[in-house]
Amino acid sequence: MFSLNDNKLAHEIVSNIKKKKINLKFMHVCGTHQDTLVKHGLDFFLKDCGIEIGQGPGCPVCVTTPKEIEEMIFLAKNGKIVTTFGDMIRVPGEKKSLQNLKTEGYDIRTVYGIEDAVLIAKNNPDKEIVFMAVGFETTAPTTASAILKNPPENFSILCCHRTIPFALKTIIDMGELKIDGLIEPGHVSTIIGIEPYEFISREYNIPQVIAGFEPIDILMGVWMLIIQIEQNSPFVQNEYSRAVKREGNIKAQKVMNKVFEVCDVKWRGFPIIPKSGLVLKNDFDQYDSRKKFEDDIIDLQNYKFKEPKGCRCGELLRGLISPRECPLFGVKCFPDNPIGPCMVSIEGSCNIEFKYLKNK
């Protein structure tokens, strides 16, 4: 647990916030930020100061839709070797998870990255290998780089990559909650830089701070937002300047732009969000699982998918509730028996809250 008494700057920030007697609602979109907040008890420190910080759609596993999970299940059932990250394998589909299929004998493999999946393809030339490419702008360059290296013909990806800025715009446009400020994700920002967020401050008068992941980073980010609000001068401020440059990572951006084009895509808990997804360009159709195996998943195109009964992950991802407000939390839904993805992923707010319950 983080101790204010052991950090002079942190103690000073919290003391100054308390003096202001404010009542503000901030949102972040990063599982690592949520872990820092809950692990160190910053959520309670800040609530005492009149600051509530909620987690928005900052967990890539959590925002992946039931349809995408079912696509992978269908591909596995049709004889493909399915590869993806460990968290993704455990997310429940409508009836089963990929983990359930693995116990039934289907070839589902956990990998640490796309290069592992490419290696599986090289070692199994008589099998089709599908990699479920999940993640935000942080992991998309890795996928793009692997595609540019001309992987084997028996390799393809089910692209589930998403991008952050227009998801934030959608949350604001939906008008379900008042957001006084945004704490932007450090990892994503190292790739995209500062400019992609600027339209939010310009069009919606909402201050933003890109923050690092230490407790002092988050406290400093909160303080920066408060000053912006007091001065009525919203802009994108970079607290994480030791890692984030204004232009971002130009090389990574170029690799992404070579391989992907922007598309509209649905997120779990949201309607279709314009300009928030990535899809392989036509030049790389041979690596697009949805095109390569269209006949295997065609039955899913018009199917209406339902969320798990009682699961409120969608509301969590929109910042409307906290994990403990879900009636399933710690009653029927546990990390070893998850009902929704927010309890599965290490970046999910329910998983994080449950992990640190003993500290509260």
Give me the Rg, rounded: 21 Å
CATH architecture of one domain: 3-Layer(aba) Sandwich
Number of strands: 11
Proportion of residues in helical segments: 40-55%
Mean pLDDT: 95
Order of secondary-structure elements = HEHHEHHEHHEHEHEHEHHEHEHEEHHHHH
- Enumerate how many helices there are, as a single number: 19
Q: Provide the CATH superfamily of one domain.
A: HypD, alpha/beta domain 2
**Principal-axes shape call:** globular
Structural class: alpha/beta
The end-to-end distance, rounded to whole angstroms, is: 10 Å
Q: Uncertain regions: pLDDT < 50 for 5+ in a row? A: none
How are the strands of the largest sheet arranged? 2-1-7-8-9
What does it look like?
This protein has 360 residues and is an alpha/beta fold. Strands 2-1-7-8-9 form a 5-stranded parallel sheet. Strands 4-3-5-6 form a 4-stranded parallel sheet, sandwiched between helices. A two-stranded antiparallel ribbon has the order 10-11. The chain has helices at residues 8-20, 31-39, 42-48, 60-63, 66-77, 86-90, 98-103, 114-123, 140-148, 165-174, 186-192, 198-204, 215-231, 250-259, 289-292, 294-297, 313-317, 341-344, 349-355, and strands at residues 24-28, 51-55, 81-84, 108-110, 129-135, 155-161, 181-185, 208-211, 236-238, 260-266, 272-280. Helices cover 42% and strands 16% of the residues. It has a domain at 61-163 and 248-300: Rossmann fold (3-Layer(aba) Sandwich).
